[in-house]
Amino acid sequence: MSHDKVILVTGGSGLVGKAIEWVIENDKGRFGKMEDEKWIFLTSKDGDLRSTEATRAIFDKYKPTHVIHLAALVGGLFKNMKYKLDFLRDNLLINDNVLHTSHEHKVKKVVSCLSTCIFPDKTTYPIDETMIHDGPPHESNFGYAYAKRLIDTQNKAYYDQFGDKFTSVIPTNVFGPHDNYDLQDSHVIPGLIHKCYLAKKNGTPFVVAGSGKPLRQFIYSRDLAKLFIWVLREYDEVDPIILSVGEKDEVSIRDVADAIVNAVDFKGGYSFDTSKADGQYKKTASNEKLLKYIPDFKFTPFETAVKESAEWFIQNYDNARTGKH
Ligand code: NAP
Ligand code: GDP
């Protein structure tokens, strides 16, 4: 069967890639697979995207017409603080290879992934799409942040020089099934789900890093996946778009710990280790632009999404990414 659209998803085995695959296969409404689409989900086993040769070989093999570019060196606050140069170099190389090979292959549209943690540290709130390059990012993740910001710069340059339709989305903190549940290097929700699960199983203390006061907006990976699919099919700007729940849905790290205690059905208490970093206090983002485009979009309630993620982790404990393999 021939398909008009061959959609290549880099980073297809990660948190966001797996969620897109799930929505494509399971959504019975507007976000499910369309007849003219062929979806290909890559893992790093298909080739190391830091290598130009490997990237070209992948594009020669699949001949994509569209690309969703997710592959990146990704991690939570503590991993970002440890490996700043790796975050900068790996992501610069991956992004340049994917974007330039897409250009060489005359790919019709590329949707790349930025993050709200790349915005200036000193800023006004809420943050919006126009503010990415307004000042230095937070010290804790400047390697990742500068590499990601350059995707936006590159997209504009490809458009101005060649008319290429390369765009990007800016999600807030993401969580869900297939996340990285490593105890040290993960993001806060998967890290705390794992820690709470161990506290329940082994009767050990449940310790939350930092003060519990920082504020974050979280998006469930399956909601984000639907929005990615919408962007690929319908969003026509080169400028990025923030994919986030509203400002009123921002929660503290303490709220996160409470939701996890509930989801894991942990009967003990927890403490805060204030010797550990808090990172950015907040990075409140506006989803006004998104809601103008897609006002009827329904986000999964935070507690429901945390529960589904914890259930997925417990059911898949032996195979989940936990750093134990
Ligand atoms: P993830 O779960 O860590 O997955 C990363 C993906 O990238 C995996 O499929 C991995 O392949 C692939 N990859 C990494 N290095 C690669 C390389 N050198 N060559 C080829 N593939 C490589 O990450 P995620 O959370 O899904 O993140 C997806 C995108 O969302 C990233 O661009 C990230 O910056 C962005 N984002 C994430 C968050 C968040 O909270 N997680 C928030 C905002 C934005 P293997 O599985 O084979 O290793
Ligand atoms: P960030 O939003 O980019 O800072 O990324 P994270 O998902 O790593 O969230 C970091 C926030 O959660 C900081 O305020 C941390 O102090 C707090 N936190 C509490 N416990 C943990 C944990 O086990 N892992 C991580 N990554 N952060 C934690």
Automatic annotation (TrEMBL):
Residues 7-246 form the NAD-dependent epimerase/dehydratase domain. Its EC number is 1.1.1.271. Pfam families: Epimerase. It comes from Dentiscutata erythropus. InterPro entries: Epimerase_deHydtase (IPR001509), GDP_fucose/colitose_synth (IPR028614), NAD(P)-bd_dom_sf (IPR036291). It comes from the Eukaryota. Pathway: Nucleotide-sugar biosynthesis; GDP-L-fucose biosynthesis via de novo pathway; GDP-L-fucose from GDP-alpha-D-mannose: step 2/2. The keyword Isomerase applies. The lineage of its organism: Eukaryota, Fungi, Fungi incertae sedis, Mucoromycota, Glomeromycotina. Keywords: Isomerase, NADP, Oxidoreductase. This is GDP-L-fucose synthase. Belongs to the NAD(P)-dependent epimerase/dehydratase family. Fucose synthase subfamily. One of its GO terms (molecular function) is isomerase activity. CDD domains: GDP_FS_SDR_e. The keyword Isomerase applies.
